[in-house]
Design goal:
- With about 375 residues, this protein is α+β, with helices and mostly antiparallel strands.
- The protein folds into two domains: about 5-130, no CATH class; about 155-190 and about 200-370, DNA-binding pseudobarrel domain (At1g16640 B3 domain).
- It contains ten helices and 17 strands.
- Strands 11-10-15-14-6-17-16 form a seven-stranded mixed β-sheet. The protein has a five-stranded antiparallel β-sheet with strand order 7-13-12-9-8. It has a three-stranded antiparallel β-sheet with strand order 2-3-4, covered by helices on one side.
């Protein structure tokens, strides 16, 4: 247990495919094969190896696998023999395997040894430790670049982002309906504020389980100015919420963020305290057109709960960039910084190239952004 999460099981149970749970309760026994069979009318291929069906397993990790190809119908008998030998995996059966239906799902969801998605992320975080060097320890391991996944087609990005936007729109509608109901109840009580039951806490982005996720290499964002500036941006930029929720692991969300409450009264009519979720990883911020402009320091990334928006602040961008410039933010796992933020000013070749990865936002956000 712990290799999956309750939310994953709930999602799989809604798919129009057969899903089986394989588990031998005998101690010390793990279901561990990685077997893939692809069949067409002319050929069949079997892949058997160490790799999981993940981005790391397909592209980034060191893996070993055997690929066997069968020409059909000539090799049909040999294929049938092989599939019979692998029948325990191809056709799982009791007592150690059971189809995932609603009844079985409820039994699994009630178990304490199957984590929630948040618990599973925390376990993985603890297991892998800190992946970014602090500079305090000597380098005892070598570094070798490994190939990354192919660039995600823009149309696939848009499908995922559209799904996330739909979720966020539904969440907004739910919050508006809840607020209207609370205001009505308060008016009925003579204007006395009512405390919501714990089970009816207002829904928020923090509780959103995305319908889908992408695993990008980089994020592109056209920078914007704010009212009252004279051409330069203030260094604080907003990232659309659909971009955060579509690639949560890329943004370290929500595992790396800690809550802080500013006791000052906010601008909201109710005088609410300002609630933030903050992370300040090390960034390398640099200008593509001027190699002398480079700085490595912590950059505050945060979700401002009161207004439901996500922002980051960089003083370097405040000094170097203008509205209309583009940044490319890359997640770095083998550097002394977590993100590389490269700035391409308008009119440069990089600016033109990076713009091809971007598309205008939806009604939720007018910002131009994209992934690769």
């Amino acid at each position: 247990m712990g290799g999956t999460s309750k939310e994953v099981l709930q999602e799989l149970a809604t798919w129009q495919v057969e899903v089986f749970i394989f588990k031998n309760r005998k101690g010390g026994v793990t279901f561990h094969p990685k077997l893939y069979i692809v069949e067409t009318a002319e050929t069949a291929e079997i892949f058997l190896g160490s790799n999981n069906l993940t981005e790391g397993g397909l592209y980034g990790n060191y893996e070993g696998a055997v690929r066997v190809t069968y020409q059909l119908p000539a090799d049909a008998a040999e294929l049938a023999k092989t599939k019979q030998q692998l029948s325990k995996f191809i056709k799982p059966a009791p007592p150690v395997s059971r189809r995932l239906d609603q009844e079985y799902l409820e039994l699994l969801a009630a178990r304490s040894d199957i984590p929630s998605a948040a618990e599973a992320r925390q376990r993985r975080k603890i297991a892998r430790g800190e992946s970014v060097a602090t500079g305090a320890e000597p380098d005892v391991f070598g570094f070798e670049s490994t190939p990354g996944p192919p660039q995600l087609p823009l149309e696939v990005q848009q499908v995922v982002l559209a799904a996330i936007r739909h979720q966020l729109d539904e969440l907004d509608e739910e919050k508006r309906a809840r607020k209207a109901a609370e205001e009505g109840a308060q008016a009925a009580a003579g204007g006395v504020p009512l405390e919501a039951p714990e089970s009816e806490i207002e829904p928020d982005i923090l509780g959103l389980i995305p319908l889908a996720q992408i695993a990008p290499t980089a994020f592109y964002l056209e920078l914007t100015a704010t009212t009252g500036t004279t051409g330069k941006i203030p260094g604080e930029q907003r990232v659309p919420l659909e971009a955060i929720n579509a690639a949560q692991e890329f943004w370290g969300w929500p595992d790396n963020y800690t809550e802080s409450i500013n006791p000052r009264k906010g601008e909201d009519p109710g005088g609410e305290e300002r609630v933030y979720l903050n992370w300040k990883p090390v960034w390398r911020v640099r200008s593509i057109s001027n190699p002398d402009k480079v700085v490595i320091k912590g950059v505050r990334m945060y979700y401002y709960k009161n207004s439901s928006d996500y922002r980051f602040y960089s003083g370097a961008l405040a000094a170097w960039a203008n509205s209309g410039d583009i940044v490319r933010i890359t997640r770095c796992d083998n550097e002394p910084y977590v993100y590389d933020c490269a700035l391409a000013v308008a009119g440069t070749q990089e600016h033109v190239e990076w713009m091809t990865h971007c598309s205008p936002g939806s009604g939720r956000s007018p910002r131009v952004f994209g992934f690769s």
